Prior knowledge:
The protein is α+β, with helices and mostly antiparallel strands. The protein has helices at about 5-40, 50-60, 110-115, 315-320, 370-380, 400-409, and strands at about 45, 65-75, 80-90, 125, 135-140, 155-160, 170-175, 180-190, 195-205, 215-225, 230-235, 240-250, 260-265, 275-280, 295-300, 310-315, 330-335, 335-345, 365-370, 390-395. The chain has six helices and 20 strands. The strands form three sheets. Strands 1-20-2-3-19-16-18-17 form an eight-stranded mixed beta sheet. Strands 4, 6, 7, 9, 12 and 15 form a six-stranded antiparallel beta sheet that branches. Strands 5, 8, 10, 11, 13 and 14 form a six-stranded antiparallel beta sheet that branches.
Amino acid sequence: MRGAGPVLLLVLAVAMGMLAIGQGSSWDRSQEDQADFRSGAPVRVQATEPGMDQVARYAELPGVRDAAPGYRLAVPLSGDRTATVLALDTAHLDDHLMLREDLTDSSPREAVSAVTPKSGRDPGIRLPGDATGVRFALRATNVTGKGSRGPGETTDVSATLEDRYGLAYRMQVGDLPLDGRTHRLTLDLGPAAGPLAVTGIDFETAQVLSKGARHRIALAGIEAVEHGGDARKLTVEGTHWRTSMVSRGTDPGSGRNEPTAPKLDREPRGGTASLVYGTGFVYPMNMGYGAAPTVDVRLAVVRPKVTEIAAVATDRYLKSAGTRVGQGVDVTMGGANVRVRIADSVRALPTTGPEAGASDGTKDGGALLLDLRDLNRALADAGTDPVAPNEWWLSTAPGGDAKAAAALR
């Protein structure tokens, strides 16, 4: 048994080595899990610059497969707690937040899909992918009576376009004379995350002193401008429209000088859609200095109304808010109360809570995951402007994270 000692030492050495390797591997994996939980995506960009051209850039970065816009907001809860609302374009979230299997009773894919809107064509007038501009054929007519307004009067036209992420951009088109003639106004387009769709047109008119007017504005058609200047007529017939008054001017009003809400009507010379509204007027003593108050009316494509949006909540949020899966809660976001239905729960959401270094553990109220597209449509239905992304989550090909990060520097 003289050789037993060295053999035993060898066995112990091998065992210790294997144990060290196992511990090292576990430690490495733990570090990777923590890093994934803190980032939520291979590359996450915070405090992004707004703009259609900047948005188009993210998905085109080297090594990037897809990009998802995100909006992060802190909302107060009772008991001096604060919850995190994380709204993401879940349809483009390829990595499913890097959510670990042990954090959900279902699966990361199922947890994210619980808030993803059902697939289907979005309402709007779709532009071809190679369009360099969009041209609107419009007529504006004063229908109050002859000589009721001065010559040279115009209404300022802007259009709302949505990209493939559902992000809306209100862009200046030009001035439309109130002369009853058809004018073609062209909006030039730069780089965009296409395909783009026209979802609304705004008309802003200055109020005048002492005497209001009734205006009729007709949309006669829309064309896509291609490279070289050629135009392609877009199918607008059959599109359902609705009207709204965005602003009513600044004069307090006595009732009879206030603008009247726009209504759809049938324009005598045909056309795709037309609206009629009253501008109201300003009393001279209320005019003051500076620019005259304006009336802003909108012609928008009808889309299904969003009455509530689905959310995935963390266990901590359920406890802090006193709710459970299947129930609804009202959450104030973007200046409106939004009805949220808890569709699923997870133990924690990446990038949120004290585990991610994102909040104080004693005051953390948990987190909610929403779909950004659904949130913005709920805000639009509430008459509130959509929220703009304040971060982007980039999914990368194998080895692509370093390339994308380098391109962003």
